[in-house]
């Protein structure tokens, strides 16, 4: 039931002490952030994709971030139309699945492989994002840790410079995800990533993408990096410590929302994670969990 621009519905929300308690929540737009979900293109190509979109529409999600393995413009055009039919937006294109599939890396010690990665990114990813009028996320594509980290960092920065030379005209927002040091050679903390952007003089074209899963490993707390770097991001990935949807692990998301409130954050919140058993149940519960947390801490 919708009344006075507020939504009333009954949902199951659990906390660390009392699970599956029936609550009646009054969710107001001014105390929550627009919710999005990252979906892999394996989901997009499955028969369950429209059902997933229907659930997101029912749960009043704002948009979808798509982790693609290919960038066919005609497929993206169909996808955009499908999203619009469910009142959803394409809020970003992630490149992790594509990088893994093709073994692309911006920090490869093999110069030919690095150049091939940059060329493919410009010709495929940036072109697709420009067509869709959306942002691009660079996480896995930064490159895994190899033997000579210093050489890798130089290669990574060289790749960004080459991309930026082209992207200054294309004007596609590029979000560098701060990923943990076990997975990536560069930009591990939120502040590290912002320093890369400053060195590149990329303000306004490059942004940092905080991710609670990685922050839990790399940061001493959620508050300082969010507040310190608040002008460098308009989206944040929410994932629990076990890489499941928020609420299915041990992270204290109240601290995250307190930090966002202190930073006067105006952006989106994107759920990212693996499905344990049932997408329908888990995404509804996670959305309710985050909205309830936002109400209590914002």
From TrEMBL:
InterPro entries in alphabetical order: Sugar_Epim/Isomerase, Xyl_isomerase-like_sf, Xyl_isomerase-like_TIM-brl
Keywords: Isomerase
One Pfam short name: AP_endonuc_2
GO molecular function: isomerase activity
Record has Amino-acid biosynthesis as a keyword: no
Presence of keyword Isomerase: yes
Span of domain Xylose isomerase-like TIM barrel: 64-291
Record's signal peptide: none
Protein name as catalogued: Sugar phosphate isomerase/epimerase
């Amino acid at each position: 039931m919708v009344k006075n621009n507020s939504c009333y519905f009954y949902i199951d929300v659990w906390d660390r002490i009392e699970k599956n308690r029936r609550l009646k929540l009054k969710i107001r737009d001014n105390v929550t952030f627009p919710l999005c979900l990252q979906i892999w293109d394996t989901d997009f190509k499955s028969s369950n994709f429209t059902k997933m979109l229907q659930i997101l529409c029912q749960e009043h999600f704002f948009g979808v971030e798509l982790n693609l393995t290919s960038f066919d413009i005609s497929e993206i055009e169909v996808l955009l139309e499908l999203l619009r039919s469910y009142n959803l937006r394409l809020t970003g294109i992630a490149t992790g699945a594509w990088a893994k599939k093709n073994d692309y890396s911006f920090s490869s010690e093999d110069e030919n492989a690095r150049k091939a990665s940059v060329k493919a990114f410009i010709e495929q990813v940036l072109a697709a994002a420009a067509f869709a009028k959306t942002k691009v996320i660079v996480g896995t594509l930064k490159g895994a840790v190899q033997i000579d980290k210093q050489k890798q960092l130089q290669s990574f920065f060289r790749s960004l410079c080459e991309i930026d030379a082209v992207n200054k005209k294309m004007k596609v927002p590029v979000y560098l995800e701060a990923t943990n040091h076990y997975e990536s050679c560069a930009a591990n903390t939120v502040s590290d990533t912002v320093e890369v952007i400053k060195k590149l003089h990329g303000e306004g074209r490059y942004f940092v993408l905080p991710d609670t899963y990685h922050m839990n490993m790399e940061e001493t707390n959620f508050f300082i990096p969010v507040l310190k770097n608040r002008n460098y991001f308009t989206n944040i990935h929410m994932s629990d410590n076990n890489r499941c949807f928020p609420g299915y692990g041990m992270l204290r998301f109240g601290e995250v929302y307190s930090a966002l409130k202190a930073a006067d954050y105006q952006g989106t919140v994107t759920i990212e994670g693996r499905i344990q058993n049932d997408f329908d149940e888990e995404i509804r519960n996670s959305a309710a969990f985050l909205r309830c947390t936002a109400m209590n801490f914002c």
